[in-house]
Amino acid sequence: MQDVPRRQIRAAHTDTTITVYQAYGPHLGLPAARDNRFPPAWKRERMTWIKPSFLWMMYRCGWGTKDGQETVLAVEITRDGFDRALREACLSHYKPGVHADRAAWKEALRGAPTRVQWDPERDLHLNPLPYRSLQLGLSGPASRAYADEWTVSIRDVTPLVREVHGLVRSGEEDAARALLPVEAPYPSGPLAHLGA
User: Which residues of 87-110 are buried (b: 16+ CB within 10 A; e: fewer)?
Assistant: First the structure.
């Protein structure tokens, strides 16, 4: 994987959709998967973070063992919505060369409905890799659009998470790797405003 760019979106995607991951407590995750939409209790006004990387989500939720993150969801959303979120996003931190100065970054962040963090991608043991994966934060209108317009399907992938984690713990890495979602570079086009 030495040819992987330092910052690149890798995801399971089709011509029209991209799959992102989130983890919730069963009170939100199970109804979302059952009804194929986020329930009314899902707070649409809050910032929500979506992750195209399965293994980064596993790092974040501890393979679905962290409190309030026991139900792992694969959320298939429209590429149109995802692309719009990327276009309107601002980096969550100031980066010289991307922003004219710190004040310009703060102004951009204040007006952006979406924000981006590039976090170290993870291996099967959740160790950091030398390249980064995208986390996309959605707030306000973007969060509402994600829940009510962009979402195509919601699947509970917790059984898969447990199976992969069990194989990793028992040293069966090849078998675990074979079960991972296939993630390929996402054709987002240039993302200079996001440092990629």
Answer: ebbbbbeeeeebbeeeeebeebbe
Summarised one tens digit per residue, pLDDT across range 48-90 is: 999 999 999 999 999 999 999 999 999 999 999 999 999 999 8
Q: Classify the phi-psi angles of 64: left when phi > 0, otherwise alpha if psi is within -120 to 50, otherwise beta.
A: left
Are 20 and 50 in contact by the 8 Å Cβ rule? The answer is yes
Token pair belonging to 103:
């004040």
Q: pTM for the full model?
A: 0.94
- The CB density around residue 32, as the number of other CB atoms within 10 Å, is 23
H-state helical runs in 44-187: 54-61, 79-87, 102-111, 140-145, 158-169, 173-179
Tokens 């939100």 correspond to 28
Cβ-based neighbour number of residue 14 at 10 Å: 10
